[in-house]
Amino acid sequence: MEGYCNLFTTRSRQTEEYIRTLPPATSACDSLARKNSMVVVSRSNYLPRFLNSLIIAVGSTLLPVGLGVMAAYAFSRFKVPLKDDLLFFILSTRMMPPIAVAIPIYLMYRELGLSDTRLGMILLYSAVNVSLAVWLLKGFIDEIPREYEEAAMVDGYTRLQAFRKVVLPQATTGIVATAIFCLIFAWNEYAFAVLLTSGTAQTAPPFIPIIIGEGGQDWPAVAAGTTLFLIPILVFTVLLRKHLLRGITFGAVRK
Amino acid sequence: MAQIRVTQLHKAFAEFTAVQDSTFTVRDGEFFCLLGPSGCGKTTTLRMIAGLELPTSGQIFLDDDDVSFKRASERDIAFVFQMFALYPHMNVRENIAFPLVSQGLPRAEIDHRVQEAARTLQITGLLDASVSGLSSGDRQRVALGRAIVRKPLAFLMDEPLGALDAEFREVMCRELRALHDRLNATTVYVTHDQTEAMSMADTIAVMNKGLIEQLGAPMDVYERPASVFVADFIGSPSMNFLPFETTIAAGAQAVNVSGATLGMPELRENVEMRKLLYGVRPEHVSFDDNSSLRGEVLGSEYLGTSQVVTVALSSGTTLRAKVDADVPATRGDQVGLRFNASAVSLFDQASGRALRTARDDAASYQRPRGYGAQHG
Question: Do B86 and A252 touch (CB under 8 A)?
Answer without folding.
Answer: yes
